[in-house]
């Protein structure tokens, strides 16, 4: 296993984002359509938060619905904005951070994804799943 491998080697660079003015129905649709669990929330070019699928589950019964179901009871979603539900105090890393450094951050915190920011621009996202897949490849 290479000790100084940068996170850029395993991060997702084709990042799906939400605009802070989008609604939670759009968020749920993106989570299900793309089979992802974390979406950075942006305002213009600035990342202002991270929304996880778990955040949606906390306020809804989305997990009780068939994955193929399109008609979701959206009453609860209309009660909240993305900004009210998303994580706001983000820790980010840059693309030169090592996989080890990122793993240490994720192991000490209660979240499972980090935005990757270079020169104040979102360039990727790295998740615990990315780290696990990297480790599996090493064996």
UniProtKB/TrEMBL annotation:
Native organism taxonomy: Bacteria, Pseudomonadati, Bacteroidota, Flavobacteriia, Flavobacteriales
Domain CBS stretches: 11-67, 86-139
Keywords tagged on the record: CBS domain
Organism this protein belongs to: Psychroserpens luteus
Protein name: CBS domain-containing protein
SMART domains for this protein: CBS
